[in-house]
């Protein structure tokens, strides 16, 4: 899948390609399934954003949902073009998004409130500048994994201190979608040669996108529930159309 292909966007210049035949359906879209598989992430983030606005959650959650959408649009642009510049529009928002998760997870117990957002903002800006000049390759992956691992202890702490059964179920769905999506990503990367010989390509990277769309939504929903508990907003989990869980709150009258 790594051959150079002339198309509307020109030769492939990205450092990573997935196990999907390029330009199979359109000369304008390099990886069709990997492009459209970001749509669920955008729709789920939009639902979360509407809920955050409607119930007047803190602005951090609106920014978080917008960050999810920005990442999905960047991923669509990258997979549609397979250009190195557009690859950065996928990878850089990944780091920005995880920095935002770190802020939401750790800020409630941070004694110097102004220092954390300033530091994370400068860190994100510095990373974007460095990443725009240097192709970090494996360094980017290692850096991103480290940032994700820093979030796990705090996420686990929130889980063990949450007594609501429905909220705990959402946290478990977060873990399931993460593991399942990672499995699809791993198989797509490692077994591409074998998969390419199958009659039907299962599109592992596209399935990774779909799972991570739900993963982000479940993470956001769980964090919104935990934050509402911290603020004394009497949160509860209800389901949209009996299927999609979201957080419903009742703020005290003085708020």
TrEMBL record:
Keyword Calcium among UniProt keywords: yes
Subcellular location: Membrane
InterPro entries noted in UniProt: ACER, ACER_plant
Membrane spanning residue stretches: 32-50, 62-82, 119-138, 173-191, 206-226
Gene Ontology BP, a term: ceramide metabolic process
GO molecular-function terms, A-Z: hydrolase activity, acting on carbon-nitrogen (but not peptide) bonds, in linear amides; metal ion binding
A cellular-component GO term for this protein: membrane
Keyword Metal-binding: yes
Membrane topology: Multi-pass membrane protein
Keywords for this protein: Calcium, Hydrolase, Membrane, Metal-binding, Transmembrane, Transmembrane helix, Zinc
Annotated residues for binding of Ca(2+): 20, 22, 31
Cofactor: Zn(2+)
Binding site for Zn(2+): 79, 205, 209
Family annotation (Pfam families): Ceramidase
Similarity annotation: Belongs to the alkaline ceramidase family.
PANTHER family per the UniProt record, alphabetical: ALKALINE CERAMIDASE
Protein name, per record: Alkaline ceramidase
Organism field: Cicer arietinum (Chickpea)
């Amino acid at each position: 899948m790594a051959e150079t292909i002339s198309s509307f966007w020109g030769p492939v210049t990205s450092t990573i390609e997935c196990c999907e035949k390029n330009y199979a359906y359109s000369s304008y879209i390099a990886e069709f399934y990997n492009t459209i598989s970001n749509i669920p992430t955008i729709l789920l983030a939009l639902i979360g954003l509407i809920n955050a606005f409607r119930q007047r959650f803190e602005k951090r959650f609106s920014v978080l949902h917008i960050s999810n959408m920005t990442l999905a649009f960047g991923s669509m642009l990258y997979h549609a073009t397979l250009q190195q510049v557009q690859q950065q529009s996928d990878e850089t928002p990944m780091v920005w998004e995880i920095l935002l998760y770190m802020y939401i997870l750790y800020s409630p117990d941070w004694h110097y409130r102004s220092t954390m957002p300033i530091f994370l903002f400068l860190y994100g800006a510095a990373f974007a500048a460095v990443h725009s000049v240097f192709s970090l390759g494996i360094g980017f992956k290692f850096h991103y994994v480290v940032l994700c691992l820093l979030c796990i202890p705090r996420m686990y702490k929130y889980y063990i201190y949450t007594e609501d059964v429905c909220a705990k179920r959402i946290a478990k769905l977060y873990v399931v979608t993460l593991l399942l999506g990672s499995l699809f990503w791993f198989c797509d990367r490692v077994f591409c040669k074998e998969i390419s010989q199958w009659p039907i390509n299962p599109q592992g990277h596209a399935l990774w996108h779909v799972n991570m769309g739900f993963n982000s939504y479940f993470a956001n929903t769980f964090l919104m529930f935990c934050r509402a508990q911290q603020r004394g907003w009497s949160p509860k989990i209800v389901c949209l159309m009996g299927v999609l869980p979201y957080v419903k709150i009742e703020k005290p009258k003085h708020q």
